[in-house]
Amino acid sequence: MSFNTFGRVLRFTTWGESHGPALGAVVDGCPPGIALSESDIQPYLDARKPGTSRFTTQRREADEVRILSGVFAGNDGIQRTTGTPISLMIENTDQRSKDYSDVAQSYRPGHADYAYDAKYGFRDYRGGGRSSARETAARVAAGAVARLIVPGVAIRGWVSAIGGDEIDAANFDANEIGNNPFFCPDAHAAKRWEAMVDAARKDGSSLGAVVTCEATGVPAGWGAPLYAKLDADLAAGMMGINAVKGVEIGDGFAAATLRGEQNADPMRPGADGSTPQFEANHAGGIAGGISTGQPVRLRVAFKPTSSILIPVPTVTRDGHASEIVTKGRHDPCVGIRGVPVVEAMMALVLADHSMLHRAQCG
Amino acid sequence: MSFNTFGRVLRFTTWGESHGPALGAVVDGCPPGIALSESDIQPYLDARKPGTSRFTTQRREADEVRILSGVFAGNDGIQRTTGTPISLMIENTDQRSKDYSDVAQSYRPGHADYAYDAKYGFRDYRGGGRSSARETAARVAAGAVARLIVPGVAIRGWVSAIGGDEIDAANFDANEIGNNPFFCPDAHAAKRWEAMVDAARKDGSSLGAVVTCEATGVPAGWGAPLYAKLDADLAAGMMGINAVKGVEIGDGFAAATLRGEQNADPMRPGADGSTPQFEANHAGGIAGGISTGQPVRLRVAFKPTSSILIPVPTVTRDGHASEIVTKGRHDPCVGIRGVPVVEAMMALVLADHSMLHRAQCG
Amino acid sequence: MSFNTFGRVLRFTTWGESHGPALGAVVDGCPPGIALSESDIQPYLDARKPGTSRFTTQRREADEVRILSGVFAGNDGIQRTTGTPISLMIENTDQRSKDYSDVAQSYRPGHADYAYDAKYGFRDYRGGGRSSARETAARVAAGAVARLIVPGVAIRGWVSAIGGDEIDAANFDANEIGNNPFFCPDAHAAKRWEAMVDAARKDGSSLGAVVTCEATGVPAGWGAPLYAKLDADLAAGMMGINAVKGVEIGDGFAAATLRGEQNADPMRPGADGSTPQFEANHAGGIAGGISTGQPVRLRVAFKPTSSILIPVPTVTRDGHASEIVTKGRHDPCVGIRGVPVVEAMMALVLADHSMLHRAQCG
Amino acid sequence: MSFNTFGRVLRFTTWGESHGPALGAVVDGCPPGIALSESDIQPYLDARKPGTSRFTTQRREADEVRILSGVFAGNDGIQRTTGTPISLMIENTDQRSKDYSDVAQSYRPGHADYAYDAKYGFRDYRGGGRSSARETAARVAAGAVARLIVPGVAIRGWVSAIGGDEIDAANFDANEIGNNPFFCPDAHAAKRWEAMVDAARKDGSSLGAVVTCEATGVPAGWGAPLYAKLDADLAAGMMGINAVKGVEIGDGFAAATLRGEQNADPMRPGADGSTPQFEANHAGGIAGGISTGQPVRLRVAFKPTSSILIPVPTVTRDGHASEIVTKGRHDPCVGIRGVPVVEAMMALVLADHSMLHRAQCG
């Protein structure tokens, strides 16, 4: 199957290929009356936009979003959501008319090339077609709408490791994230990564990365157990991002090395006498699939970009041994531009669950 | 919301609480004509069953499954699925009539107690109610049906680490898995774990674990990109299991430390001249959200059981500081009995995707 | 496919065959805190129960419902919904162990026999298996739960025609509905129908019927256009009932014979100065797929029972010409017992949409 | 809620308002390898297009469809579906910049105006916004894709009554349908309707209509009982079309007037010795929610257009009594242009069920 809708009551559907005329998302179920214009979305697309530093692909896309439906300006002149589906479109402008014969004939290991052929019988090989990370622009646009649905929630993502080199928690400075091309909150790590990514790029290689994302302001009670648990929906949303191979909620795999008393998040009465406080957050803000009121925190593993200039053995479509070098414009570390995508999926899942919770529990 | 259905075309819905009269699953969409009786399901329930060694909870449940619908014996006397919903029921028999006043009044940190109260206003506190791992019996029963839908797929899970102590790949022996109470394929590790779990149990503590699961015989082509990718659906299925905090496909977080050429799974022509072979499986058998024909491999992190005898600070329902000791019968390492559950979810996701693939691609 | 779940956020899944051990429904998504016990459900099952007069099938079923999950009695001793799935089970007790060789070998025209064989390859022929109207007991039980979710809505159905003989609107008396075995609000019509149904029964024939159902107290604003319109969901719910062949909202097909000014529902200011009033209700309380605040009114056409004693030409499973007489215990007019089922589906759709509306619009 | 996706495995999502820049549909789940270009879709849009005779609205829209994704031309130059989502867009070009103050301030009875305001708090009043029948262009485009998925199925709709004046079955000539502006298969009726519709138009009034639609070539076995029955999904699809108030499968309400033996569809052995034949089709080709192999036949009631020049009492948004005359360009009988829409929904439901059936039954 092809299945291109995500969400339960706030639902979005994306469409488009890397080298088609455009790509887009239809966001359905958004509450009415929310002020929304292109300028609410564009900054998030700009954060994800390619070609902004030498550490990302050099494809140049304006990534300008247009809202084609679902909004209306009333007498006060402010354009608001009407409650009907919001169609967002981004035109492709820099599809390079290069020769795709290599990719058309041979499978790039690590890419979806062979899997798409095996599934569908043929594929749009231009720039990866539907499997291109270019589609994540549609998610980022949809995510910008989702943020407006949960205005009390603040979502912030960053790169916490590149090529196995982790940031130092002691150096964490949220203000630093926007100061370097790596969404890195640790100025020292950013410096190191600059050298690392440059070296990998020059080698024709690539690097993996870990993205951390945190949402504060999520009230206790969101999540729809047992099969639409908040953490399960987040895991689905994150694992579905291109190049992602692992997801952790809270301490994740580290929790598996702990003893029960180490992993406990002790509680104490809150200052207001009603809402309890937690003295730790190993759980990442989710228990039993439901938010606890603590920050929702997760980590996402991105593999190194599969498109590299170092030759890899492969086979051709007609079954012959070959070797492939993936030329073209690629991110040396695809995890970097994953930050806005992870944030967008976080926003979409949280907004959906805020509405799901209201449906049942008022 | 409460949302208790999983799957897209093969769908199952579970119901039941830890201390209610029974629990069950309705499996819908199963193809007709598959021989099915209780004896096809019972062995998997027996593998998950509590009380079989001192390393699991001492609650004694027969966990006998009854098939209440969806099967019919024709002239040959063989009972087969009819294509209609299969209702599976397991009666609870060993709910202990103990005093629940502690748990009723105070929140057990790490448990869903507080989150359920915050969401629903009150909760069935007897044995954890709906949030109890007892519900996973229903998944295991449903998973046994799913296995019959994909008879060419072999699914095998094992515990690969307890309390941070990993098995040695050199000692891996699949036949060993059934020979110890830990689903451990490494006889040496099993020996070590025996001492570790015993010690934790005696301390009134608990241990985390990692479960690995592998499915062989999955053909290339299963998965429904972009929002029902095979890995995303697996991640949702696994992260929704009680106590799970992390999911990795293939190399997972380790892939984030590699360079592109290290992480590549080189291809070469297959012996039959048509199906390509892979020289590595960093990807865990999934590319672009679609199976590649390699074994599908994943790892799942289970946190240590939250129910411990070591006191943890907490608050009462009415907001006072307290301390809680979780008495009762509990698994000292809940990840151990997670193995049959992980296998069941793997089977359910794969069977669903085999049918989804057929729907679109014939 | 087999697809046995209905609803969007309030969802129910049914299972069970006519001659299996039991049948049931799992109601998922119900808000927490609603007082619920078997006694809230049983009266609706009793209204639908077979064998209560000579005008229905003589199969004797107690149709006693058991609640197996999803409820909990707190300190006040009142059992309430917990927000988790509610499993309802009804045991079959009067499956007659007759010889089914006729039905097993030949297709009963008008029944699902041939269609099930064509779809699934074989079928449970005992009493119609899954296609039996006996399954509607599960819907009635689920519908009783749904009514509690929308306590401000009053739902009332009645038979408005049998065998083409319609009630006289001038004689309409709601109190009469419970006074005769036909759910007939017109005492004179009930008298005529008694003779008609008796005659049909004695002839070994059967009669069709029309059921009308009205819901008052539905506020304006329910419905999820464009593809979950309130009327579309009602149409799906009604058309899915056994033996139903037509659904009308408001004036239905009669509206197709009118001119625009005749079909208009003029509006005038309401007494309270805010909520408008309507001077007619041709629309049946729904415009643009959304409730208008008027009574929601619909009509449902039931075909005559296909099981008749008059021989009908048919074919055997192996393709030979035959003739079939459907012995056994059958309703001479299946539409009569359709009333509680139509009411139940109305309740389920309205409760679902009350929650869907709240999800988006607060 | 707003819910704008229809279908189960073949799913389409529509977006767009009457006076926005464009409208469109995303068709997801379409099998790969089907030749598809704009020219496969355009003829169906042309059949629905406004402004082609004096019997439809005089709004002039080219209704030119663009395919923005989901297709790819391989080496043979033929553009085919790739299995990924197909985005279809139609630009609005003739939104008339008239003054909407009347409609903005007052509710048009029979329209969705009041219901949208009650639900969402405000509405896009330009041309009816999202509730405009203009959206059906997106369904027609999606339906054209669906037809290609079930190439063995022939779908044909026609108007069978206008203003209560029915066609004469004896005059039925399929070739006549395209010869008059009414999709009327009876040349005599078409003549009468010309006068009737002209008269209604001159009176500033409007007329209701009945559309009949038949699909031949549907094999036995499609349908997903019990809650995605083929007839239930068709009913939902049809009742969701603008202005529809009734749906009948086969004989529909007429079946409710018959006796069992009259309504039976007797069977006899087929010429090929295997597939049975039916001697009648009261059932409209569906039994137990599953197709029987007979033609699938249904009837749909369209109310008269609510937009009329005859004044109707109404209220203003601020609750004052008023009267409204709906100027602008409107269809005097909206049922006429309903024919391509009914056909499209029939195609979409059948294509979806062909795939659903394959998912479970191979």
From TrEMBL, chains A, B, C, D:
Family of this protein: Belongs to the chorismate synthase family.
SUPFAM superfamilies given in the database record: Chorismate synthase, AroC (SSF103263)
Originating species: Croceicoccus ponticola
Pathway(s) served: Metabolic intermediate biosynthesis; chorismate biosynthesis; chorismate from D-erythrose 4-phosphate and phosphoenolpyruvate: step 7/7
Gene3D superfamilies for the chain: Chorismate synthase AroC
Leading EC class: lyase
Biological processes per GO annotation: amino acid biosynthetic process; aromatic amino acid family biosynthetic process; chorismate biosynthetic process
Name by which UniProt lists this protein: Chorismate synthase
Database matches in InterPro entries: Chorismate_synth (IPR000453), Chorismate_synth_AroC_sf (IPR035904), Chorismate_synthase_CS (IPR020541)
Record flagged with keyword Flavoprotein: yes
HAMAP family noted in UniProt: Chorismate_synth (MF_00300)
E.C. code: 4.2.3.5
Molecular functions (GO terms): chorismate synthase activity; FMN binding
Residues binding FMN, per UniProt: R130, S131, S132, N242, A243, G288, K303, P304, T305, S306, S307, R329
List of residues binding NADP(+): R48, R54
Co-factor requirement: FMNH2
Keywords for the protein's UniProt record, in alphabetical order: Amino-acid biosynthesis, Aromatic amino acid biosynthesis, FAD, Flavoprotein, FMN, Lyase, NADP
A Pfam family assignment: Chorismate_synt
Cofactor mode of binding and number, as noted: Reduced FMN (FMNH(2)).
Function in brief: This reaction introduces a second double bond into the aromatic ring system.
NCBIfam families registered for this protein in UniProt: aroC, PRK05382.1
